[in-house]
Specification:
The chain is mainly alpha-helical. It has one domain (4-273). It is built from 8 helices and 4 strands; from the N terminus they run H-H-H-E-E-E-H-H-E-H-H-H. The strands form 2 sheets. It has a two-stranded antiparallel sheet. Strand 2 and strand 3 form a beta hairpin. Helix 1 runs antiparallel to helix 2 (39-59) and helix 3 (61-85) packs antiparallel against helix 6 (186-211). The longest helix is centred in the middle third of the chain and has 26 residues, at 139-164. It is globular, with a radius of gyration of 19 Å. The relative contact order is 0.16.
């Protein structure tokens, strides 16, 4: 397959994330392992590139570029409005912890959104349609998959936000605190709104792209249903939970909350994975014809 090397790049990036984000924190104090430089922004970039490269393998180049660009622009716009007005997520501001900013938002933040937007997309697809990608034609499918994807993505924020805005990290500061580990509940409504917008825009274009291809409306049902296409994004989502919990700065209650809220979509996706064949082709490589990416 022409895109197979991209999959191996994605696997290598995930291995680097596991080493730096999970293995090193676990053995810290017993074994000194070499550090991958870059800190949290660097680790975020590694996993974001993992998501991008796997999306390129599974969805094709054109679709991935639109997915990444649209999610980055929408997420940055909501974040910028959120910092300036306090309306979207509640009153907050970013510190210098995450590095250089565009406006009021660190440049790494749009990457951080796509880092989990893509795995959440795959997991929601598996749970609702039994396929790792694609949005079947029709408004009902568009809305249902967008809502499910947004809920899956927001579940992750229930874990990561108390960590990064907590007293030991303070990547951003909530002006008035909040009831959930210092985070205002308003924040999660903002996350649902932001991610729903991203998925609604992308999935509508995904429907349009699919309708333009041979097979037309049927192509919108997505990739060949193989576990090889789906398993790595599910692993990204699950390993991010593990990384958050072994970080050493997670509030104690997240050890219970995290596996519940993030475990539920993983279990739903894994239930579909168990019946899927291991082999298969990414979309655009179903025949000897020209790949769509």
């Amino acid at each position: 397959m022409r895109r197979r090397p991209v999959l191996w790049v994605s696997i290598a990036l995930l291995a680097a994330f596991v080493y730096e984000g999970i293995l090193r924190p676990i053995v810290h104090g017993w074994v000194v392992l070499p550090l991958i430089p870059g800190g949290l922004p660097g680790l975020t970039a590694i996993l974001a590139l993992c998501s991008v490269t796997h999306a390129w393998y599974a969805l094709g180049g054109r679709t991935t570029l639109f997915f990444f660009a649209s999610s980055a622009v929408i997420a940055w716009a909501y974040e910028q409005a959120g910092v300036l007005t306090g309306f979207v997520y509640g009153p907050y501001h970013y510190t210098s912890y995450l590095g250089e900013k565009l406006g009021e938002v660190p440049l790494v933040i749009p990457m951080a959104w796509f880092m989990m937007i893509y795995p959440s997309y795959v997991i929601a697809n598996l749970a609702l349609s039994g396929r790792p990608s694609g949005t079947a034609m029709g408004l009902r499918n568009l809305l249902a998959l967008s809502v499910a994807s947004a809920a899956t993505m927001t579940a992750w924020d229930l874990v990561i936000d108390p960590i990064l805005s907590g007293p030991q990290v303070r990547a951003w500061v909530w002006e008035g605190g909040g009831r959930y580990f210092g985070v205002p509940l308003h924040n999660y409504a903002g996350w649902l709104l932001t991610t729903f917008t991203v998925y609604l825009v992308f999935r509508r274009i995904e429907q349009r792209f699919a309708a333009e291809e041979p097979g037309g409306r049927r192509a919108a049902t997505g990739a060949d249903p193989s576990a090889s296409v789906a398993v790595l994004p599910v692993a990204i989502y699950l390993l991010m939970l593990v990384s958050d919990l072994v970080s050493g700065v997670a509030p104690a209650g997240l050890a219970i909350i995290g596996p519940v809220v993030m475990g539920a979509p993983v279990v739903a996706a894994a239930w579909q994975l168990r019946t899927m064949p291991i082999g298969g082709r990414p979309p655009g490589e179903r025949s000897r014809g020209r790949p769509r990416g």
